[in-house]
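Hi, here's the filled form for the chain we discussed.

Project: internal
Contact: R.S.
Residues: 381
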Amino acid sequence: MANTTQRNIPSNLPEVEFVDTDTEALVNKLIAGYEEITGRTLYPADPVRAFILWLASIIIQERVGINESAKQNLPRYAEGENLDSLSEIFHNTYRLEPTAATTTLGFYITTTLEEDYIITDELEVTVDGVINFATTGYLIFKAGENYAEVGAICQSVGTVGNGFTPGQVSKLVSDEFLYFKEVANTTTTAGGSEEESDTAFYNRMRESEESYTTAGPRGSYAYHAKSVSSQISDVSAESPQDGVADVRIMLYGGKLPDKELIDRVQEYLSADDIRPMTDKVIVAAPDTIEFDIEATYYIPRDKAATTKEIKQAVELATENYTLWQTSKMGRDINPSYFNAMLMESGIKRVDITTPVFTEIPKGSVAVLRNCNVTFGGVEDE
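And the returned structure, exactly as it came back:
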């Protein structure tokens, strides 16, 4: 499983090696031992020396395997089921299972009735015959009304059900009920997530230590908010006034949360066994501060033959900077970081018109509006 973020391993922890994997040291030891036992010198072309080199390679491969197996006993190295097994040493922290996207479906009937018209059967509506959404409650048309809404959940877990805009979920799969006219989703489908990655799970394990207290620390709110969905990458918790916890959430890739996910986090954090009794919890998306990228770069003449490759590297650096800049709340807009990333692409210099350094307050995030990075030509050193 691919990790989406870097593991937050404490910098004071040393790298762990359970057995030595230095091939040269092992070969020298084997040769010295052979020469001591036999009393003869092994020269570079000696067949015995070739055999010892082969033997050393086998031993080193086994030692590497021992190292990797032993490291699976440490949370910072463990992966997959090994990491799942180690979760028992943390405070009720388990890997988040994949979830299905949800939406609201709006139904029309051909006529209005004098009494409430209730559909108790589960109704299934599809986007394309593959991705289906099923109603999660009764569909109730009030007396005198020909329109009603009901919640629905995707029948496939994961992000596959996300991102369908209003009107795209519109084909009834179930048998038509009496008076049925048409159906369509009224909200963009959202909330579907994949199984939590090893990296995200490990980071949340460490954050779970903050949940031991019920005093409402920032870390506790961050841990509990991330426990709602594996889509959540960053959480900001502040107290603008006594008794109020202002919690902002962001998703991986610098995406902002939709209303349904915000409501789920609000409900979860407001539970009596999570929220300190004196706190009023407010959950929202971060405030956004827009910025533009306007830059011109130049390539040294001695690298003119690799202009195409450098242009591709500049595009990648721009994408990486944008992701870095927009993926965390409270991260100042920093053109110096952009400049450093561009210089790594092999250019000679760059003129960055925008952005300029801008402080981003807690609970806010920078959002890219326009991006224009152009090639200015070739210059002498």
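Let me know if anything looks off before we file it.
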